[in-house]
Design a protein that fits this description.
This protein is an alpha+beta fold. Helix 2 packs antiparallel against helix 3.
Length: 366
């Protein structure tokens, strides 16, 4: 049965000079409203021990606009400013529910520049998108067709100077054809993923590939004067190298996760806590480059879309040391041991054996 989901489609676009200036002002105002609202929330809680609601901050925003110092907030669309307050309300809800840390102030240099427009703040006509306060539509590079009309539009600019528009809309997804195939996945560093079928997916190590180029760009940046156009150019070169690494890694993980979902009815993986594993400073850089968490996230939402089962196995399950043939538990298995022989006579590849055990454990709890 087809499933209707909310789905975001992200596109590059090239703003005109006027559009870029308008969006730049909007980004600045959104950041200012976030910081003033956060300051107000923190002050009220520290002095009066009470929480501040979205309605109270919305009323405060109206008052800020009437002051001489902040009258410029009236020059941009009010919708992104209100959306900033809504996002902060959600951030505090997550904080009080202990799902996230305390929200932080936004920096012009370090924070992502973005603004969210709801349906009342943009026009969608003839396949063209025009934002509030703009006279002409955005010049979007339509790499794929939208399945329906937009409900929310988020415009952003990354540190490499690239402009993006993320369009949220409804999409109808057909379930993938049923199959009897199942697979266990053991993630690693030498091989990004080892499958219970015996296949090993090589870790592309995109960060390591571009490490020399990144180091060269960073050295160039370090030699530039603190406040200069040359430093900004050098900073953007560093950002472009990072963007290239992220784009290639994300593309690779999308292709791998989509293949696993299409070919298998159930996929079993370990329930790893990657954040804790990053505490190992000797491996943190390699673990970050592998992006195991991103792969899991992709598998989760794609399994939900296409009617597949994602089976999570306890992180403490000794998948490496259990014989997938007889079930015997091996006492010790150092990391440098890549093959081992069980007392039942079966010789195991360390990672393939782990993937098979992960699959068996996942199916047992299904």
């Amino acid at each position: 049965m087809a499933k209707t989901v909310k789905r975001a489609f992200k596109y590059r676009f090239d703003p005109t000079r006027e559009q870029g200036a308008e969006l730049g002002r909007t980004f600045g105002c959104v950041r200012l409203v976030w910081n003033k609202a956060l300051d107000e929330r923190t002050r009220v809680y520290a002095t009066e021990s009470r929480k501040t609601t979205y309605i109270q901050l919305s009323a405060a925003l109206t008052g800020w606009k009437k002051t001489d110092d902040l009258a410029f907030l009236n020059e941009v669309s009010s919708v992104p400013l209100q959306q900033s307050l809504r996002h902060q309300q959600a951030a505090f809800s997550n904080f009080f529910a202990k799902r996230a840390r305390y929200p932080r102030f936004k920096s012009r240099k370090k924070s992502k520049a973005s603004a969210e427009y709801t349906r009342s703040a943009f026009t969608w006509r003839g396949g063209q998108l025009t934002l509030a306060k703009m006279k002409t539509p955005l010049d979007i590079r339509w790499s794929r067709e939208l399945p329906d009309e937009p409900s929310t539009v988020t415009v952003s600019k990354d540190s490499a100077g690239r402009w993006f528009v993320s369009i949220l809309t409804e999409d109808t997804i057909e379930p993938a054809p049923a199959t009897d195939s199942t697979v266990g996945v053991d993630v690693g560093l030498t091989s990004l993923a080892v499958l219970s079928t015996g296949e090993k997916v090589t870790n592309p190590r995109y960060e390591r590939r571009d490490r020399r180029k990144l180091a060269k760009a960073q050295r160039s940046l370090s030699r530039k004067a603190r406040v200069s156009n040359n430093r900004e150019k050098a900073r953007r070169k560093v950002a472009r190298v990072h963007a290239r690494i992220i784009d290639r890694r994300t593309d690779f993980l999308h292709k791998l996760s989509t293949r696993l979902i299409r070919e298998n009815q159930a996929i079993a993986i370990e329930d790893l806590t990657v954040r804790n594993m990053l505490g190992n400073h000797a491996l943190a850089r390699s673990i970050s480059d592998a992006s195991w968490r991103q792969l899991r996230t992709m598998l989760e939402y794609k399994a939900d879309w296409y009617g597949r089962d994602l089976l999570l196995v306890d992180r403490w399950y000794p998948s490496t040391r259990v014989c997938s043939g007889c079930g015997a538990l091996h006492e010790k298995l150092p990391l440098n041991v890549r093959e081992w022989e069980c007392r039942c006579g079966v010789t195991h590849d360390r990672d393939v054996n782990a993937a098979r055990n992960i699959l068996a454990a996942g199916l047992a709890e299904r």
